[in-house]
Write a structure and sequence with these properties.
The complex is a heterodimer. Chain A contains eight helices and eight strands; from the N terminus they run ααααααββββββββαα. Chain A has helices at residues 2-24, 36-54, 59-65, 67-86, 95-116, 124-142, 251-271, 275-290, and strands at residues 148-155, 160-165, 170-186, 192-201, 205-210, 215-216, 221-229, 240-247. In chain A, strand 1 and strand 2 (160-165) form a beta hairpin. By secondary structure, chain B is mainly alpha-helical. In chain B, helix 4 packs across helix 5, helix 6 (158-187) packs antiparallel against helix 7 and helix 7 packs antiparallel against helix 8. The chains are: A alpha+beta, B mainly alpha. Chains A and B meet through helix 4, strand 4, helix 7 and helix 8 of A and helix 6 and helix 7 of B.
Chain lengths: 296, 255
């Protein structure tokens, strides 16, 4: 009966998200810019922490922490990713996709709290993997509205002071970006092997910009050499290049999550199967052998 | 200079050695099986080295070049599983799976040029691709065991699939995260729900479902095997299946 209740809870949760999608259209993500997103995230984490501390045996917390919920949420999130993977449409801003991520994050956070509670021995691999996934997904989820991408074309002699965002809106740049030189190394036949742009920012910072090597403009802004324009294989001095400015203040949280997950997967490799997984496999193997399953 | 025109000779020699190794394994001749398979790997590795030198860039850009690595690592994984657990049939299946991808490269040749676009000139290129291909081969071996387990209605291969899937998941995670770090330095974002990234996430979540099922799912071995096959299917989708989807036109992973 308790299992049935868990399935009903999650079915109702996702049904509600679909009703919201039908009634209101996509999730109103524009509201979740800083500081609203950070406030909602901290409040949500605090509420779950209080629920875990004070109402741990309640039906809600038990449901959110149950193993059935792990499988339901992994299944639903995988299904959401498959739908997204098969389609050209962006579903990541739909209510049901947001509900899947939010449900997964809530479950993951409570699992981390339970795993790290004083009653259990500290397990480094568990902590790195679960907290790493949590930080990486939470930073992408809550920080998505603080992320901005702008593109601008820089030509020699003409400073770029404006850029265009993904929706085609023109914005004034916080920086005065000048292209002072452009160097191209080509394969025989004219296909670019590599190219570099000599850039001056605000008249006093000179550097070479290359693909895969962004330049840090500030703690939240990075400058990228995105492409080469107006290039026919011959260096004429009239080339221009496409620059990309990415503002992503949550990148540090996301990177921390990635590093933790990388450390966790190293332990996964070194330690191999753990707990019941290894025991049950071995026991099953022994049972099969005892039953006279014969040669391998 | 060694190019694709020489591939058929090296691949045929390697394949003959792998099949001889599989036969020796079937007849319980352990040392011969190891020596033959290792010999085949050496022949194949020589081709890869010469091909790499001839191209003057890592041979990892095109689908054909990744198939080259997959068939190589498939034989490596089969050899490792045989050396550790001595399933006498595993070398045959790993050789057949490697042969399928070798045949694709021989009978469905693609145009391979030597150019390497600037975005691919990164220190992440080689580890990202090789780690992914190695994880694909480990999952390929797990899938062979899963089919054997389902056909024989037995859970006796679970200990091996557990080990392969744990190592495979670790490598898959490293491949996915190294891709995310590379994407940040090349395109500005760690994750942008590009079709290839989305299918990588699908595959990774199937891996997580397998690990959690094995931790908490008791003795439901049929479901565990089915999840291994789902991971295998996800990898094929991520590797080349995604190219056939309408969304592939907008993918940043089309080179």
């Amino acid at each position: 009966m308790a299992e049935f209740g868990i399935y009903v809870f999650w079915a109702g949760y996702f049904l509600l998200s679909m009703v919201c999608q039908l009634v209101a259209g996509d999730f109103p993500h524009g509201f979740f810019v800083f500081p609203a997103n950070a406030a909602v995230m901290l409040l949500w984490m605090a509420v779950l922490w209080v629920l875990f501390r004070e109402k741990r045996n309640s039906w809600l917390v038990s449901t959110l922490l149950s193993r059935k919920s792990t499988f339901v949420l992994l299944g639903v999130f995988t299904a959401a990713c498959i739908i997204q993977g098969l389609s050209s449409e962006k579903y990541t801003v739909s209510w049901w996709f947001v509900a899947a991520v939010f449900g997964l994050l809530s479950h993951l956070y409570l699992v981390i709290l339970r795993g790290m509670s004083g009653k259990r021995p500290f397990r480094l691999r568990f902590f790195l993997n679960h907290a790493g996934v949590f930080l990486a997904i939470a930073a992408g989820f809550f920080g998505s509205q603080d992320t901005e991408e702008w593109r601008t074309v820089a030509s020699i002699g003409e400073p770029a002071r404006e850029a265009v965002d993904a929706d085609g809106r023109v914005i004034a740049l916080d920086y005065d970006i000048r292209l002072t030189g452009f160097y191209i190394d080509s394969y025989a036949g004219g296909v670019p092997r590599s190219y570099e742009a000599a850039i001056t920012v605000d008249e006093n910072k000179d550097f070479l910009l290359r693909v895969n090597h962004p330049h840090r403009l500030s703690w939240q802004d990075d400058l990228y050499l995105s492409g080469v324009g107006n290039f026919d294989g011959n260096v004429t001095g009239k080339e221009n290049c496409i620059l990309q400015i990415v503002r992503q203040p949550w990148k540090y949280v996301e990177f921390t999550g990635i590093l933790m997950l990388l450390s966790g997967c190293l332990l996964l490799f070194l330690q191999g199967p753990a707990g019941r997984s290894a025991e049950s496999g071995k026991a099953m193997h022994e049972r099969s052998a005892a039953a006279g399953s014969g040669r391998k | 200079m060694t190019g694709w025109e020489s591939f058929i000779y090296f691949a045929s020699a390697a394949l003959v050695l792998w099949l001889c190794g599989a036969l020796a394994a079937w007849k319980d001749r352990y040392r011969t099986a190891i020596a033959m398979t290792a010999g085949g790997l050496l022949v194949y590795a020589v081709f890869i080295v010469l091909f790499w030198a001839g191209l003057q860039r890592p041979p990892m850009r095109t689908l054909g070049e990744t198939r080259l690595w997959y068939s190589f690592f498939m034989a490596v994984s089969g050899l490792l599983v045989y050396a550790r657990w001595r399933y006498r049939w595993i070398l045959f299946y790993s050789a057949v799976l490697a042969a399928v991808f070798i045949s694709m490269n021989i009978f469905m040749p693609e145009i391979h040029d030597r150019t390497l676009m600037p975005a691919l000139q990164s220190s992440w290129f080689v580890p990202h691709v090789t780690v992914y291909m190695f994880s694909y081969s480990l999952v390929g071996c797990s899938a062979i065991l899963a089919v054997a387990g389902l056909a024989g209605n037995t859970g006796k291969y679970l200990e091996t699939t557990d080990r392969l899937m744990y190592i495979g998941t670790a490598f898959l995670t490293f491949g996915m995260l190294s891709g995310a770090i590379w994407a940040k330095s090349a395109w500005g974002l760690y994750w942008s729900w590009d079709p290839k990234e989305t299918w990588a996430a699908v595959t990774w979540f199937f891996c997580l479902a397998y690990i959690h099922l094995r931790l908490y799912g008791g003795s439901r071995y049929r479901m565990a095997y089915i999840l291994v096959l789902a991971v295998f299917a996800g990898l094929q989708m991520c590797w080349y299946g995604v190219n056939w989807l309408p969304s592939a036109q907008e993918s940043m992973h089309v080179y």
